[in-house]
Amino acid sequence: MKKIIFPVDFSKASLNAFPYALHLAKKMGAEIITIHVYNDINLPYPDYHDYIMEKYQIAELEQFENFRDEVPKLRTIAEKEQLGRVIVRHVLKEGDTQDSILKVALDEKADFIVMGTKGASGLKEVFLGTLTQKIMNNSKIPVIAIPENCKYLPLKKILFITEYNLSQLPILKKIHNLALLFNAHIDVLQVTNFDNRQDEIFSDEWKKIRPISEVNFYLLNSIDIEGTIFDFIEHHKINWITLSTHHYNFFEKLYHLSLSKNLAYHSDIPILSIYEK
């Protein structure tokens, strides 16, 4: 069975992202594995073994009870979305949050990680020092980041921001497979200050892979890369953004966007990051 990892801390951001995990699971025929991670206790008396073990057991019990009490919130959301039959399994882990999420995702051979991202500054929160950004940087499994203010909408228009390298054709294939589940359209876009017609080469190679597909290819010339991308998002009514990323340079793969502009206007758009080998 296909699997979706859903990190949850029961914050507004994580609960808000749960409908996306549910609807994706329904379309894929997947189960959702929620994971809640808590840190181990750090006591100042390492020599007092019995005291530490007693406190550790109490801390673990409290974490379990808190987790148990919060889980019904997810069931309520599922019933509200009329997706109560989606299989949901719960995992409680102690340790480093990032490492625990990535390990569970790998051990379970997950297809996606879906997680909420906090803050009203939208895309900026995804890129600058958040847990979501760290997971995106280090995950070989596709990660879907749902901004806190984003309300669930069916997937209709996907934007794939690319450099038109032929190495990204497998990425587009994964995006297209997702689009087929939702009957969604894909726009592929590069914004650059020079024109090498690489989009035509990329498009021709794509048609050899999928001769019939709802995919359009755009290459726009502009020195204002950031502004042009967001104008495209608004004009084409994009409701998902997709990026390919290497482990070490997720931020650089976004064409060195300055993020100097106010991105809160676009804080209601989910972002799908797919690892590029």
Automatic annotation (TrEMBL):
Name by which UniProt lists this protein: Nucleotide-binding universal stress protein, UspA family
Give the similarity note. Belongs to the universal stress protein A family.
Native species: Flavobacterium terrigena
Domain UspA, by residue range, is 1-147
**Alphabetical list of Pfam families matching this protein:** Usp
Q: Which InterPro entries match?
A: Universal_stress_UspA (IPR006015), UspA (IPR006016)
| Ranges in coiled-coil conformation | none
CDD domains in the cross-refs: USP-like (cd00293)
